[in-house]
Design goal:
Distance between the termini: 47 Å
Structural class: alpha+beta
Radius of gyration: 22 Å
Largest sheet: 6 strands, antiparallel
Mean pLDDT: 89
Low-confidence stretches: 1-23
Strand content: 5-15%
Number of helices: 20
């Protein structure tokens, strides 16, 4: 049984890697670390370097049978709303970084031919540089963390790290940074990931678990050049609320209630039957929340439902916004977003991880998000609408993001270090930081290897993007730009 399979069966990571504890007055309990093995995860991690040298992560060779870029995009469009797929293609064709954002499945296919240590973690599955950002906690404070979990699975931690590093190279190229600066951003992201693992490995377990992204992170990652940009993003995020969105996107209806105003093709009101199906799905959604959230939502009435186009990779999936209004007329908007199977799933068995069928894809997304974030949306849950699984969350929950393709070279380097540190913290909720730190080590061997991979894969993504653009121009695939 692989480590991943043991974890999925209920054993804690330490128990999975190190084996069961021996006897004694206090019996061993599944999921707890063996008493006599204190400190051994670091050595276990070190030993993995013999089987998978850190330098091996530099290698990228396209696997046999790799689909071309257009075929990969067409396959990933299957099951989406057909009328919206040209928008998705248009967004992916905008530049190579945008192409990478929409091609997580193609990259997973490519990564499955590369080396993995066998250490598993709950991974984002789509940890590119634009999937980190700010959002509000329950008290209105701002937290910075990963914020997109559509593809989350239990899998190889290396895949997230390589996707982040590659995305930084591509974002830098789109921004006009020179090649040395692009490579430096990838190199420093991996270095910050590795150093954060070492820091977390030295902390008491509870302190490491609760480590959160605040102003200390900027100091830890030496992100001074990014401070001004972060401050501007934070100021904007504080105003990015449901109430503000509702004020711009709704009007008073003839019945006195509020209703959405069409803003095609991004936002459109739906028919009565569709609206009723979405609204009805909020009843089973309530059962996925902690009980103490229910009195809060009981103070809101449902006023309207609209369909809203979202993201780059997500375009074409079904996504609704539901307008709730309290007794004072204040709005709260929930997003009800279709949850499709992770695009990583078909490629996990090739690297020794279980590809388990999920009971509910919305539950997978929500569970993965809660495993990786220190603080999650208090209204995060899941439901089913007309037989399709959905996740539910607050819409515009003080969200803010940095556009990595608009940063200067110095800022990109800072951003790389920050996101590398955030990724390390997210992984160590389900992988022992001592185990990962033992493998990654003190020197920069892993940094150099992953940076080399990132440059090579960025080159591959640029070629794939060029193929997609050529296919759009020839009429092989339809695209709608500027939406």
């Amino acid at each position: 049984m692989t480590v991943a399979e043991q974890y999925a069966a209920g054993a804690g990571l330490a128990a999975s890697v190190l084996g069961a504890a021996d006897g004694g007055r206090i019996p061993a309990v599944r999921g707890f670390a063996p008493r006599h093995e204190a400190g051994s995860p670091k050595e276990t991690g070190k030993a993995l370097r013999e089987r998978v040298p850190r330098s091996a992560h530099a290698r990228f060779e396209p696997p046999a049978g790799r689909p071309d870029a257009v075929q990969a995009v067409e396959e990933s469009n299957a099951g989406r709303v057909a009328a919206l797929t040209p928008i998705r293609v248009g967004r992916m064709a905008a530049n190579p970084f945008a192409f990478l954002r929409g091609s997580a499945g193609l990259m997973a296919h490519d990564l499955s031919a590369g080396p993995v240590t066998g250490i598993g973690a709950q991974i984002c599955g789509d940890a590119h540089a634009a999937n980190f950002g700010l959002y509000g906690d329950a008290r209105g404070g701002l937290v910075m963390d990963l914020n997109d979990f559509d593809e989350t699975v239990f899998g190889p931690w290396e895949w997230d790290l390589k996707r982040l590093a590659t995305s930084l190279v591509l974002a830098g190229r789109v921004a006009g940074a020179d090649e040395d600066a692009c490579r430096a951003a990838a190199l420093d992201a991996v270095g910050a990931y590795r150093r954060t693992l070492r820091l977390l490995a030295k902390l008491p377990a509870l302190d490491a678990w609760n480590a959160i992204a605040d102003e200390e992170l900027v100091s830890h990652t030496d992100a001074r050049d990014l401070l001004g940009t972060l401050q501007r993003v934070m100021e904007k995020a504080r105003n990015n609320t449901s109430a503000r969105f509702a004020a711009k996107s709704t009007e008073q209806g003839p019945d006195g209630g509020r209703r959405f105003v069409d803003a095609l093709p991004v936002l459109r009101r739906v028919g009565d039957a569709e609206a009723a199906a979405v609204a009805s799905s909020l009843d089973p959604y309530l059962r996925t929340l902690q009980g103490d959230r229910l009195p809060l939502l009981a103070r809101y009435a449902i006023h309207d439902v609209a369909f809203r186009v979202v993201g780059t990779g997500s375009v074409g999936t079904r996504s609704y916004v539901v307008l709730l209004v309290d007794h004072r007329g204040e709005a709260l908007v929930l997003q009800v977003k279709e949850a499709r199977p992770s695009v990583l799933l078909p490629h996990l068995p090739e690297v020794g991880f279980a590809a388990r069928a999920e009971e509910h894809e919305g539950r997978r997304v929500v569970s993965g998000q809660k495993r990786m974030q220190v603080v999650s949306d208090i209204l995060l849950g899941w439901t089913t609408v007309e037989g399709r699984p959905y996740q539910v969350r607050q819409f515009r929950n003080r969200k803010g993001s940095v556009d990595p393709a608009a940063l200067t070279a110095a800022q990109l380097d800072d951003y790389g270090r920050m996101t590398g540190a955030l990724l390390a913290r997210a992984h160590t909720h389900t992988a022992d930081p001592r185990l990962l730190a033992g493998y990654c080590g003190k020197n920069g061997e892993l940094d150099e290897a992953v940076a080399a991979f990132a440059v090579a894969y960025a080159d591959r993504s640029e070629a794939d993007h060029a193929d997609l653009v050529a296919a759009v121009r020839s009429g092989r695939i339809a695209a709608e730009s500027g939406v």
